[in-house]
Amino acid sequence: MGVPSRVAAVLAGLLLLVGCGAPPAAGPSAERSLILATTTSTQDSGLLDVLLPAMTEDTGWAVKPIAVGSGAAIEMGRRGEADVLLVHSPAAEEELVATGVTGRRLLVMHNDFVLVGPATDPAGIRELPVAEAMATIARSGSAFVSRGDESGTHAREKQLWEAAGVDPDGVWYRSTGQGMGATLRVADEAGAYTLSDRATFLAQRDGLRLQIVNSGDARLLNIYHVIEITPAAGERVQPEGAAAFVDWIVGPRAQQMIGEFGTTEFGEPLFTPDAGKTAEQLGG
Asked: Which residue numbers delimit the PBP domain (predicted)?
């Protein structure tokens, strides 16, 4: 992300809060605020707008979110520019843990990735296993829009291309370098396929012509972990704030809120709460 300092990260978080209309936290002092670096899907889906005020209410810690791709969020943690992470890029997370700058890494929730595209499905991928679907898109030359931002979604997309035996290149393949919401809009305008997390797509589908055209494959499981950052990453890290966030998000109130999120508007939850489970139990 290129955030030069923790001060800049705090300011960026405040701008995000203003931009998304979230009310300022009441009560906590500056010493009781923490920085959460997270994937864009938690913001674009609206989940943060529900969880963070409740976190502040229960713990007294104000949370300043920095919503970027999981890769950028993980780099912020590595540099000590965030206190806690909520991300969905397991291989990159494990690399971060191996550096010794983290505390607990716990499963929080899951949903799935979906391939979305024009209703006409020009490549004909609806009934195919996902790796075959990706190969078919490439073989047909159908337009595909990638986030191209080293996010968790982009990492999964690259894994799917590898499984399909495809090195995506050519006029049919385009990268935005942007978050999920922006990438969905670009794909919609171009009449292209893209890979999205289900939550962001459902939250934004009313403004899109795109439809889910391929889903349900085991390779599309999307797992989110919370990761504590410790002072080993930098002296400005607040381990008390990180611990408070981890304890709260895997606790009963947060897990219930996660399990209910989306049911009123979409008729189904956008995430499944998973505290106490392991990725292996989910098949990830």
From this structure: 28-252
Query: pTM for this one?
Result: 0.83
User: Furthest-apart CA pair in the chain: how many Å?
Assistant: 57
Domains of the chain, CATH where assigned: 6-111+223-282 (3.40.190.10), 113-220 (3.40.190.10)
Task: Report how far Cα 151 is from the mean position of its chain's Cα atoms.
Answer: 8
Distance CA 251, CA 234 (A): 27
Distances in Å between the Cα of 171 and the Cα atoms of 62, 67, 138, 174 are 46, 30, 11, 7
Phi and psi, residue 112, nearest 5°: -145, 160
Residue 280 has what pLDDT?
A: 84
Structure-model confidence comparison of residues 30 and 87, the more confident one: 87
SS (H, E, C) 206-260: HHCCCEEEECCCHHHEEEEEEEEECHHHCCCCCHHHHHHHHHHHCCHHHHHHHHH
Read off the tokens for 266: 């979409």
